[in-house]
Specification:
The chain is an alpha+beta fold. The chain has one domain: Alpha-Beta Complex (paralog of FGE (formylglycine-generating enzyme)), CATH 3.90.1580. Helices cover about 15% and strands about 20% of the residues. The chain contains 5 helices and 12 strands. A hairpin with a 5-residue loop joins strand 5 and strand 6 (about 105). The longest helix has 14 residues, at about 75-90. The radius of gyration is 16 Å and the shape is globular.
Length: about 230
Amino acid sequence: MQHGIDLSEVDLNMVTIPKGEIGLRDDRIKKQWKVEIESFQLSKFLVTQDIYRAVMNESPSAFKGDRLPVENVSWKDAVLFCNTLSGLANLDQCYIMEDADTITYDATKNGFRLPTEAEWEYACKAGSSGIRYSDIDSVAWYKNNAEKSTRDVGLKSPNAWGLFDMLGNVWEWCSDVYDETVYGSYRIFRGGGWYDDERSVMATIRRRSHPAKFRIDDLGFRVARNIIS
């Protein structure tokens, strides 16, 4: 049986995000929609390599460093991390692994999970209305300043809600399916990465790929939790 862990030892620094509303759009599939956001918690930092290694006993990243964001992880890898961390912390696991290809999310559970893309964009903007929450060079590692590598988390300025690296450094997996009718089970990632130019490092840009097979050295994740009374 797994023993509980002190979450402060893995430095998750969960931030409580207030409830609100976010308008989303995707010109590629010609859709616009609004989402009501309930208050939830989101990690202040991207999941780092030291945390990922402590939880999963694996080091998949192409770039090596304890405080660098973990990358080279699939959506399924990120979900397995969330479930494993929940188990270690004596919390209910949010994801049900029905078989090798079918994973369902249980919104009633109190464990760790990936943010929805609506939660992610809402938290990224932190009350701002533009495509970025501040000047790009002050908040993001991207092609013009990252020097062809990920960088330690938390070195750039945070947004208004105290979240670091919401733009740049690595893209971030979200929980959602992109467009099931066109792309099947492809999952969304957001935020831009160290390899991207300025036009890809925006709060509104959506990307998608295969949940189990797609791994790349500028794609990682951060964790969320429901607030359950």
